Amino acid sequence: MSRYRGPRFKKIRRLGALPGLTSKEPRKLRIINKPHFNRKSEYSIRLKEKQRLRFHYGLTERQLLTYVRIAAKAKGEKGLVLLQLLEMRLDNILFRLGMASTIPQARQLVNHRHILVNGRIVDIPSYRCKPRDIITAKDEQKSRAMIQNYLSSYAQKKDAQKKKDPQKEEILPEPKHLTLYPLEYKGLVNQVIDSDCVGLKINQLRVIEYYSRKTKI
């Protein structure tokens, strides 16, 4: 199954907030109050969580299945390992730093060779970042101008959210595992992400359960 390129609001209305897919919000959300729609099977719940994970991080079905298999073989809690694998992708790191407004935008920056990791160009969005990695924009006017626009938009969005409702919990928690140096167009990976800072509120165990019925994990 290929990566989704269709209407983004359609997915948000069905699955809920997906900050990695789009930075915009639909004016109205469709709310269904009929009792028939309130009775959901275990399979439909697992499927929805899997779809939310997939569309937020912009993965194909095959890519997500590969990550699930890697998480299943790793030590520790499978659900947490899966989220850590996804959060440490280079495209997601750029998004969490605010150097791109969405994960698709971050992927485009990487594909077009605007991003350096530890001083070397990396053009693979799925590149797995490690602690102490330094992510910077290429030292060219075009690269830095684009990232500056994204950084300014990110700062304005956070300020607007705080003014609108200071008590409201942020959709995207502050990434404590990252440090941004906006004047230098640089970000630093401090450590592997903790579960409290994951960019999507999701029941990752439901995703593991969904794939456990299809694969031997």
Automatic annotation (TrEMBL):
- What name goes with this protein? Small ribosomal subunit protein uS4c
Checking SMART domains in the record gives: Ribosomal_S4, S4
* SUPFAM superfamilies xref list: Alpha-L RNA-binding motif
| Organism superkingdom | Eukaryota
Keywords on record: Plastid, Ribonucleoprotein, Ribosomal protein, RNA-binding, rRNA-binding
Small ribosomal subunit protein uS4 N-terminal domain spans which residues?
3-87
Q: Which GO terms describe its molecular function?
A: rRNA binding; structural constituent of ribosome
Task: Spell out the NCBIfam families in the cross-references.
Answer: PRK05327.1, rpsD_bact
A Gene Ontology cellular-component term = plastid
Q: Where is the RNA-binding S4 domain?
A: 88-152
